[in-house]
């Protein structure tokens, strides 16, 4: 019998075809000629073999004639998860790639972010980044906004309205000697963080949650870090920040926080490492520090695209997690060339990082990340044979090969439909 939770709600639609996802036990599970039903709450009601159509239709009260059949070269996969996006940086994506991190922040990022007090400008940029990432299959995004509370609330509204699952953070920074007009006082940061959290929670957006967001240790005093840790604990909220992204940054953190044993210890001392913490980058962590973070159950980003890459240039090269998949595979091969004992990542493992792994990093895997009964249906309907797409199929291929082709060659033209919490999201005019 199919995996199901019983007819607790009405079935909204049923698909028949191939479903590909990851589980705790395996990075890649392929379900061929399966039925998947989504209820009116947007949750997966059942998954079963097509041969069970009659019994499933009787149990769940839908007509077999209403089942939607996927085409030969189509499949469903979980939505992509971007665990670290600086939404305001989208306004200059693809430019400003000429400086190391700290110089880059001062010359480009902070001046641009200061413009987001203008809500018209914020509306324009934030609408574009949410639309673009959705079109590229990002169903869940973890966003850094700016220090401006109202603009950050606007980003949350836009994500919810367009149908993207999101964590949104009002950035906190009470220290910025380079761009002095772009910072807060300690009290302003506390007050505005609390206002942001209260107003966002009061909106009761079904898809968006607040995340406490100290930008990084260099932009926050120890007092503010401690207060933000207390705010997160009081409200049981997610936390996001940066760690060990740049050698100069690591050195300065050591000078500013001499009482701490490491960069990791700075966050630990201020109660910012929890099972809901996401730390971006971690390029220069020792094995000991990585182990410490793992013991504290804080998680680093698994795959993200709008982040400063390890080469410390710019704010990202693409709106697509598919590009992050390819860069990850390429870099893994480079590491193997440098050290033959290094085990190269497989495309199956990177597929899991981009889907279930991302949801786990954000502590959202109880709701999304794969096709388990009871989870929200966050999914991409992919057609690798799309007429205007970049993939040429020479012959009929098995589903595993089709997935690999999509991950390595595909783009938004191959994404036929995007679902978040069971709802087909906009904007799509395919």
UniProtKB/TrEMBL annotation:
Keywords: Hydrolase, Metal-binding, Zinc. Pfam families: Amidohydro_1 (PF01979). One of its GO terms (biological process) is guanine catabolic process. InterPro entries: Amidohydro-rel, Metal-dep_hydrolase_composite, Metal_Hydrolase, Metallo-dep_hydrolases. GO terms for cellular component: cytosol. It comes from the Eukaryota. GO terms for molecular function: guanine deaminase activity; zinc ion binding. The keyword Metal-binding applies. This is Amidohydrolase-related domain-containing protein. Residues 76-425 form the Amidohydrolase-related domain. The keyword Metal-binding applies. Its cofactor is Zn(2+). Gene3D superfamilies: Metal-dependent hydrolases (3.20.20.140), Urease, subunit C, domain 1 (2.30.40.10).
């Amino acid at each position: 019998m199919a995996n199901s939770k019983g007819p607790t709600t009405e079935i909204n639609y049923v698909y028949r075809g191939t479903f590909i996802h990851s589980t705790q036990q395996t990075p890649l599970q392929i379900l061929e000629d399966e039925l998947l039903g989504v209820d009116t709450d947007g949750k997966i009601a059942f998954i079963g073999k097509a041969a069970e159509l009659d019994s499933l239709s009787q149990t769940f009260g839908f007509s077999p004639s209403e089942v939607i059949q996927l085409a030969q070269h189509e499949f469903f996969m979980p939505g992509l998860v971007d665990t670290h996006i600086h939404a305001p940086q989208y306004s200059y994506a693809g430019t400003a790639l000429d400086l190391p991190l700290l110089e880059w922040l001062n010359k480009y990022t902070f001046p641009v972010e200061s413009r987001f007090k203008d809500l018209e400008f914020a509306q324009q940029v934030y609408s574009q980044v949410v639309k673009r990432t959705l079109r590229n299959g990002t169903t869940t995004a973890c966003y850094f906004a700016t220090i401006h509370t109202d603009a950050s609330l606007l980003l949350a509204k836009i994500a919810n309205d367009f149908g993207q699952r999101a964590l949104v953070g009002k950035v906190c920074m009470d220290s910025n000697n380079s761009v002095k007009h772009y910072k807060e006082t300690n009290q302003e940061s506390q007050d505005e963080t609390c206002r942001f959290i209260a107003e966002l929670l009061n909106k009761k957006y079904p898809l968006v949650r607040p995340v406490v967001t100290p930008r990084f240790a260099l932009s926050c005093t120890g007092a503010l870090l401690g207060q933000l840790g207390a705010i997160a604990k009081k409200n049981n909220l997610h936390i996001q920040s940066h760690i060990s992204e740049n050698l100069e940054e690591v050195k300065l953190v050591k000078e500013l926080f001499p009482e701490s044993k490491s960069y990791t210890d700075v966050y630990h001392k201020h109660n910012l490492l929890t099972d809901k913490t996401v730390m971006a980058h971690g390029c220069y962590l020792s094995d000991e520090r990585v182990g410490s973070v793992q013991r504290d159950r804080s998680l680093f980003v698994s795959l993200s695209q709008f982040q400063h890459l390890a080469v410390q240039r710019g704010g990202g090269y693409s709106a697509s997690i598919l590009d992050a998949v390819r860069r990850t595979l390429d870099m893994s091969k480079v590491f193997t060339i440098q050290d033959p004992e290094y085990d190269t990542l497989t495309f199956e493992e990177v597929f899991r990082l981009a889907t279930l792994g991302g949801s786990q990093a954000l502590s959202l895997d109880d709701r999304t990340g794969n096709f388990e009964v009871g989870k929200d249906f966050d999914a991409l309907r992919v057609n690798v044979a799309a007429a205007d797409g970049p993939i040429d199929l020479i012959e009929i291929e098995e589903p595993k090969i089709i997935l690999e082709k999509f991950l390595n060659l595909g783009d938004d033209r191959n994404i036929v439909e995007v679902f978040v919490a069971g709802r087909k999201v906009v904007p799509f005019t395919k």
